[in-house]
Design goal:
The complex is a heterodimer of chains A (240) and B (126).
Chain A lengths: L11 H29 L5 H28 L7 E5 H18 L3 E5 L6 E5 H19 L7 E9 L2 E8 L6 H10 L16 H12 L4 E6 L2 E8 L3 H5 L1
Parallel strand pairs in A: 2-4
Antiparallel strand pairs in A: 1-3, 4-5, 5-7, 6-7
Helix pairs in contact in A: 1-2, 1-6, 2-3, 2-4, 2-6, 3-4, 4-6
Chain B lengths: L1 E5 L3 H13 L3 E5 L2 H10 L4 E4 L8 H9 L9 E5 L9 H6 L3 E6 L5 H15 L1
Parallel strand pairs in B: 1-2, 1-3, 3-4, 4-5
Helix pairs in contact in B: 1-5, 2-3
Classes of the chains: A alpha+beta (240), B alpha/beta (126).
């Protein structure tokens, strides 16, 4: 019989769910405290409403990503594989992430890469993964005291088109990603070298990328370190 | 009363800072442990409000560093954190050896509660 206080190993799905729930509690706390402050002051400014709007939208995005991940894995939503241009997708992702980043004083630097090759993938799933991942990088860089920026970029490598987020932080590495995996679902701050909090966006993004048969990895580019995925270019489309 | 607020989330920090300032405190906000030590060096705080979940150096690491300086040994610390009290490892050590006076769980702590805790802890020191 299990003793009271014994830890039970959570399944991967439960770990992911726990992380998302704990992540979502943060913007809820922010909104709750904002409303408390607003009730004691004379008026709520447009700036405050913009903050509320952007953090709610970011939270909805994470929930949508989590839901999409479950739906794709359960084959409730089929993958729609099609040729896409990575640079266009990165542009859209940056556009969507910008309002959230702006509230945290973080600049998104877009570097779509020179003539990034077309890849065959599910655009919605890939974009959802990149947006969830981007939120984590924004939060991480928001802690930086000086000029805070995140580079969203793509470049060609020997293995394919590498797309992801990069920062000047030197603490992010293969070991910290490995530790984050080991701590996911047990620690409240599994990715301590990257960001405070549950870093749910990293794990949701990773799970979504797995449905596309690619994975999240530590990547280096132009003296910056980040998390990225390597997409396989379509050999046929290159001939077109 | 001078407060050092160690809070990694800038938007939340602004709310706590505004609230504490409305309660009559001066507040220096920093996002990490290293900056907090520098801030304390610049102006000794009357009280420190600390989130345990920090990037890089954790809240516990900050506490050990902070308490290693004799002049800061008596400065009270309030944990205002997303980690519930019962999950904080070595809770007794935090209180007895590291001078943590209160542990406030963010989801259930209103701004009024935070200001009241800061006032009460600061008064109890006098």
């Amino acid at each position: 019989m299990r003793q009271s206080g014994d830890q039970v190993q959570l399944s991967e799905e439960q770990k992911l769910f726990l992380g998302v729930v704990e992540q979502i509690s943060r913007p809820l706390v922010t909104i709750s405290r904002m409303s408390e402050l607003a009730l004691t002051s004379e008026c709520t400014t447009t700036d405050q409403w913009q903050i509320v709007q952007s953090i709610i939208n970011a939270s909805l995005q994470l929930v949508e990503s989590y839901s999409l991940n479950l739906r794709v894995r359960g084959k409730l939503t089929p993958l729609n594989l099609e040729p896409i241009t990575v640079s266009a997708l990165l542009y859209d992702t940056a556009e969507r992430l910008n309002p959230f980043a702006k509230q945290y004083g973080v600049e998104i630097e877009l570097e779509p890469g020179p003539r990034a090759q077309p890849v065959i993938t599910d655009k919605v799933v890939l974009q959802s993964a990149l947006e969830s991942l981007g939120q984590v990088f924004v939060m991480a860089q928001a802690e930086v005291e000086r000029h805070a920026y995140v580079r969203l970029g793509a470049h060609r490598s020997a293995h394919g088109v590498v797309a992801g987020y990069y920062t000047a932080s030197s603490t992010l590495g293969v070991d910290s990603l490995r530790r984050a995996h080991a701590m996911q679902g047990t620690a409240r701050q599994p990715f301590q070298q990257l960001v405070n909090g549950p870093a749910a966006g990293v794990f949701v993004a990773e799970s979504l990328l797995q449905t596309l048969s690619v994975h999240l990895h530590v990547a280096k580019y132009h003296n910056m370190t980040g998390l990225a995925t390597t997409l396989l270019p379509s050999q046929q489309l290159q001939l077109v | 009363m001078h407060v050092i607020l160690i809070e990694p989330d800038r938007i939340q920090a602004k709310l706590y800072k505004t609230s504490l300032e409305q309660a009559g405190c001066t507040v220096e906000h920093v996002t990490g442990a290293q900056a907090a030590v520098h801030a304390a060096d610049e102006q000794t705080p009357d009280i420190v409000v600390l989130e345990m979940q920090l990037t890089g150096h954790s809240g516990v690491e900050f506490l050990y560093e902070f308490r290693s300086y004799a002049e800061w040994l008596q400065i009270p610390v309030i944990l205002h954190t997303f980690v519930p009290a019962h999950e904080l490892a070595h809770g007794a050590t935090l209180k007895e050896s590291l001078g943590v006076k209160r542990i406030l769980y963010k989801p259930t702590t209103s701004l009024v509660d935070l200001c009241e805790a800061v006032r009460t802890v600061a008064l109890s020191r006098v």
